[in-house]
Amino acid sequence: MGMRMTGALSALRRVALLSGIWGMIALCIACDFSSGVARAETAPVKVFGQFGETRYAATEAMKRLQAILDLVYGEAGLEPEYVPVPFNRAYQQVINHPGSCLAAVTRSAETEQTLRWMFPVSETRVIVIGPVLSETPDEAVSVEMLRRAEAKGIVSLDGAGQVLLQGAGIRHDSRPTADTVVKMVAAGRVRYGVLLSVTFDLLDNDEKSGVRVLGPLQVQTIWHACHRDLPQEQANRLTAAWAHLKEDGRLAAVYARFQTTVPAP
User: Fold this and answer.
1) Which domains does the chain have, with CATH numbers?
2) What is the 3-state secondary structure (H, E, C) of the chain?
3) Which pTM value belongs to this model?
4) What is the mean pLDDT of the chain?
5) pLDDT (average), residues 95-118
């Protein structure tokens, strides 16, 4: 009788041990071994930007941006769902989709009220362009120069350039696409155009042949940002992942591949 009882207890111990082992295996399956971040069962995060089968998606700037987002989201244990949208419509899409994110955007009075800032992705310059035969010397580019040229016409691309001009109280027109800004300047409809250099660089050389860059006005940091309704837990994971990747050097390695450096927050 005693021997049978001992055998039964031994069998129960084996079952308990095996159950514990399988429980640990199940827990490990739910972990991200590359980052040490436990993965939660969450829906993919919609990220709006100039992705997909477009001429912009193949540019160096967009390849770098997607490589950075892939790394940070992977480290955070989150899955980005890239949604191809032109830059000028991406912001509005995020506003209409609570919990979604904007691949890249500059900070302004409007976006400060509607977005939650996750981490910086790059730095770029606000530049001034003029007709290819413009007599304005490069060193003359300044906010004061633009103020004196108000009557001759200034056009900006919606975004950072527009915000800069508004802050300086300079009268100007604005357009939603970079190619329209370039065409207006090339055709002589306005004297100057103001836009981000990273956006200007995305245009084809043929589109830019009628204008030239006169010089920079200001350096702008471009951020990855999300709708203010992004769950706090997801926001914490993204910011913590970026900080960890910056600390251990993996983020710098991605930027080095594209011959640039990690922007300061």
Assistant:
1) 42-123+222-257 (3.40.190.10), 125-220 (3.40.190.10)
2) CHHHHHHHHHHHHHHHHHHHHHHHHHHHHCEECCCCEECCCCCCEEEEECCCCCCCCCCHHHHHHHHHHHHHHHHHCCCEEEEECCHHHHHHHHHCCCCCEEEEEECCHHHHHHEEEEEEEEEEEEEEEEECCCCCCHHHCCHHHHHHCHHHCEEEECCHHHHHHHHCCCCCEEECCHHHHHHHHHCCCCCEEEEEHHHHHCCCHHHHCCEEEEEEEEEEEEEEEEECCCCHHHHHHHHHHHHHHHHHCHHHHHHHHCCCCCCCC
3) 0.71
4) 81
5) 89
